[in-house]
Amino acid sequence: MQTILTELIINHPALSACLDSIKLAAEALITCYENGGKLLLCGNGGSAADCEHIAGELLKGFAKKRPLPDNLREKFTEAGGGADFIGNLQGALPAISLTGHVSLSTAFANDVNPDFTFAQQLYGLGNPGDVLIAISTSGNAKNVINAVITAKVKDVGTVGLTGWDGGKLAELCDITIKAPADETYRVQEYHLPVYHALCRIVEERFFET
Hints:
alpha/beta, Rossmann fold
C-alpha cells in the first residue's frame, strides 16, 4: 500500500492533504472484501462515469492479470469449460455501480421520486459489511446523500469522494476524501488518480500476479 500511496503523492502533491483519508478508505475496502462483502457506487454525471470506471477496474484485471486459482481451474475443467475459460476469465472483486440499472432507475424516477433512486437500490442490494463509495463533487447531491443515509440504516460502510468543502457528505460518511479543489472539473481530475490508487491497493492485497 505504501508504495502506491507514495507514488500517488509524487505525481499529485496536492493530494497529500487527504492522504490519511485515502489510506482509511483503502483499509475499509480491504476489510470489506476480506469479510466477503461487496462495493456499491453512486454518483451523477461525470461521477456516474467514475462509478462505472471503478467497478470496471475491480471486476477484471487492472494492474495485474489475476489468473484463476488452481481449485477453480479444476472446477472449470470438470464442468466442461476447459482452456478457454481458464485462459480468459480473471480474478474479480464484486463491485456494483448503482448508475447502470436503466430500467429500474427510470421507472423509479418516473413512478416514485428520482431523489431516492440510489437509496432504493442501496436498500435492496446493501448488506452489513458492504461499502458504498458515494461520489459528489459538491458533497451535496441529494440522491447521493439519500443513498448514504440508507447505507447507515443497512449497516453499510460509507466512503465519500467530494471537493474540498466536503458538503453534507463530509458530515455523513464514515470516511470522506476531499479533493483539494472547488471547481467541478478539477475535483474530478483529482478523483481519478485517487480511485485508481485505491483499486491498485485492493488488487495488490488480493492478487499475487
